[in-house]
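Internal tracking record. Fields below are filled automatically when a chain is submitted to the structure queue. Please do not edit lines marked as system-generated. If the sequence contains nonstandard residues, flag them in the REMARKS field before resubmitting.
Queue: standard
Priority: normal
Entity type: single polypeptide chain
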Amino acid sequence: MDTATAKAQEAHYSFFQGVERNFDKASKYTRFESGILEQIKACNSVYRMKYPVRIGDKIEVIEAYRVQHSHHKLPCKGGIRYSMDVNQDEVMALAALMTYKCAIVNVPFGGAKGGIKINPKNYSVFELEKITRRYASELVKKNFIGPGIDVPAPDYGTGAREMSWIVDTYASLKPGEVDALACITGKPVTQGGVRGRTEATGLGVYYGIREVCNTAEDMKKLGLPVGIEGKKVIVQGLGNVGFHAAKFFFDNGAIIVGLAEYEGGIYNEKGLDIYKVVDHRKSTGSLLNYPGATNIKNSAETMEQPCDILIPAALENVINGSNAARIQAKIIGEGANGPLTPDADEILNQKGVIVVPDMYLNAGGVTVSYFEWLKNLSHVRFGRMDKRFSENQNDSILKSVESLTGKRVTDTERKQILHGPDEVDLVYSGLEDTMIGSYHEIREALLRLDGKVDMRTAAFTVAIDKVGVSYEELGIFP
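SYSTEM-GENERATED OUTPUT FOLLOWS
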């Protein structure tokens, strides 16, 4: 298939239609009647708004969205992105993926997503604050935000700063609401955020791919050794997700051979030091011309270089019908939302590539957001109740063992043994357990369907089963 034909074919599918296409493919392997399947698939509430904000000497009309895909569980959950590419179709698709993502990792939320159609680089901090606070007030007016209703989070183009503006606006409009901090996640720690949230999505990508690589049967099919160590990795996108994913792979013995950003990419089959590359980009403003690496001017071509694992961690549709055949990776981990088109899926599956789907792999963010939401509702920092107890108990056990054996451990060993869990330790532990358990749920579905489907379809069947059961339990009302 030539490039023009592939692009023309894929133009028939919007992002949301692509999600629906994957849903329909998987729904054939579930037991639910068509009415429940249609309810699961549909977006329950779509809020498209336009509001005026004074920018400099002019009034600018801002276009924004909030979509609640599913109310099978409340609150709804999903990020807010700032981008000129924001449109209703994209927000609907991302909200739908959030529903399935939450179901897969057993987070009791319905899916949602929000977006503001702006380029944040074109505005001052003060102007961004005005745009954000007005957006928050619009959500409050229509009851589209609240600890038990809809809980947004950061996404592309937003971060902890924007979340702090939103929670402050919400609290000012809802005086006396004791759980106001739980109206949004991804906040600064000082504003009720949780430690470990910043790196959560990238760490989840690492945990998920590590579990794939630790599955001996799958590695045997790919002709790769078990484990993450020594595997060659390319990461496309060095934003929050891509950087942290690359960092955890690098820190745990993988070889980062390629990195790509919008200005281009670099490749070195012997490996790149992620920390030095980031320092180089900060000092020069570009990945290009990193010492010892080959420049790749067309960023997308970086993904086509030899590697074992490819992590597309930027925007959607970067691997499509026109370039999928040239991808050399044996494992593709979708760090971004929707980086592969349905046509790319088919091509890569025929090649025997393991595609680990976004709706599972990048669920680290929503998993840790769930932990933050629980923390805000409980009003207690994780670890506060048991850290000292654990340390005192470990100290007592260690002293008993030393007394019985007549030997003393080293100071370093003593420190490790006595350490009680901090909040970040508990967050990492909860995320690791979630990613491991959810991967094996998907793999069990894959084995049950006995090679009839790929991993994405298996993941969809897991999600549909869980959401469908919720709708059955809710009952169908006249």
